Structures are given as structure tokens and as C-alpha cells.
Amino acid sequence: MAHDLFSVQDKIAVVTGGLGQLGRQFVLALADRGAKVAVFDVTADPARVAARYGDHAARLEIMFCEADVTDRASLETALQRVVQRWGVPDVLVNNAGLDSPPNALAAENGPFESYPLTSLHKVIDVNLTGVVLCCQVIGGAMAGAGRGSIININSIYGLVSPDQRIYEYRAAQGAPFFKPVAYSVSKSGLLNLTRYLATYWAGKGVRVNTLTFAGVFNHQDDEFLKNYTARVPLGRMAAEDEYNGAVIFLASHASSYMTGSNMVLDGGWTAW
């Protein structure tokens, strides 16, 4: 039987932010294909786990670890649990992140000139510093084992500026909204972190790549959807499962000669 290039069977994967919308998708995509998946999230509350995963957790090889990506000690403790149960991870998906949605507090989404530095620090701490810490702890263990694939989850707003015109309707509703600078700055930092680690760990057998995504449909308000999708050549937001294939590709042997790269899946957003 020919080797399946895209197989992730028996691979050990860590997905940060695994209780979120996309994180759940990545976990199930990997686990459904035979991977052993550790969900790292800031809470591993059984009720929340049950609400997000239902009977999938019992049917598949999934473990849930409480881990704060901004806290090295908690990452080390969670990794130790994974290693004791399964071994050193083969795959790390750095998915955990903070964003400011249109319904966030006004102070979070005000003009750049008055954007709070406390908010800037909080977002960068999770979206960038948190990825650095995960790479140090989990990626370091992978490098020690001489193999692995690190997948950094990015956004189109890490490549190009947000189109603030999409949100102008909010001003007409009496609640002006500006997509904050912190998200863009934090996500753009992932691109060079990827390149840095790809070259740093190339001799250790660890590949490091970025996946850059556009927005995902999550029942946003109609005005936002109209403005956003008009900006997308494919004319719609992504379905929540449409990025799974790219994660499987980067986790598998199919991408064995790929490192330091940025794969863009954005419906054509950055083509205009």
C-alpha cells in the first residue's frame, strides 16, 4: 500500500486555544485522522469541554490541559502531561489569540490616537509573546527529539492593513469602531518569528510555517457581513472547516520540504 502523504496517523499534536471556534476544528481534523491531540487552553473546565466537544472527546484520542500561553510554567506542566501520556509532540499549532470583535468595549475599538497601551500589551502578550513561549517550551522539546512541525496561525491583518471602511456603519449607529493596531502588529510579528525559527531549527528537523487566514463566518451582523464580503473576491467569509486541509498538509509528510513559508488562504482578499 502506498504511503499516504497526508497521513497524520499516530502523530502527537498540541493545539493552543483548542476550545475556540477554529481551534476546535483543527483538533477534530487531526484527531479524526488518527492523531493524538492535546488541547491547551486557558481553561479546561469540564462543562465547557463537554459543550465544545460532546462525545468526540471520548471517541477520539484527545486530552485537555489547562495552560496559559503567557505563563511558561503552566506550559511546561501541560507539556509534561502530554509527554508522560504519549511522548514528545510532533506538531504544534499556535492557534490561541486575542482579537477585538465589533461588539467589544468602546475603549478597545476607539481611534488609534487614544488606543490604550494596556490593551496593546495584553494582545501582544497572547498573540506574539505567547507564541514565542510555546515555541520555546514545546518547540524546544521537538527540536530535542529531532523532528516536528510548528504551524503559526496568522491573519490577513498581519499582511495588510485592516480596511477600516468595513466598520464605518458603526459610526452611523452611534458607536464608532476602528480595527485596533494591536491585532495587526501582533500578527505581523508571527511572520518573522516563523522565518527566524525555520532557519534556527532547520538542522534539528523542525519545520516552522505560517498559515494566514481571512475572516470566518460566525453569525456576524448583517451590515458587517455585507461590507466584509464585498471586499472578498470569492464573495463570502470562510466556513469554519475550510482551513483544516492546510493544517493537515503542514502537519503531514506532504509538506516535508516546506519551512519558513507563509500559506495564504483568504478567498482572494490580498489579491486586490
How would you describe what is shown here?
It is a single chain. With about 270 residues, this protein is of the alpha/beta class. The chain has a single domain, classed as 3-Layer(aba) Sandwich (Rossmann fold), CATH 3.40.50. About 40% of the residues lie in helices and about 15% in strands. It has helices spanning about 20-30, 45-55, 55-60, 70-85, 115-145, 170, 180-200, 220-230, 245-250, and strands at about 10-15, 35-40, 60-65, 90-95, 150-155, 205-215, 260-265. The protein has a 7-stranded parallel β-sheet with strand order 3-2-1-4-5-6-7, sandwiched between helices. Helix 1 (about 20-30) crosses helix 9 and helix 4 (about 70-85) runs parallel beside helix 5. The model has no long low-confidence stretch (mean pLDDT about 95).
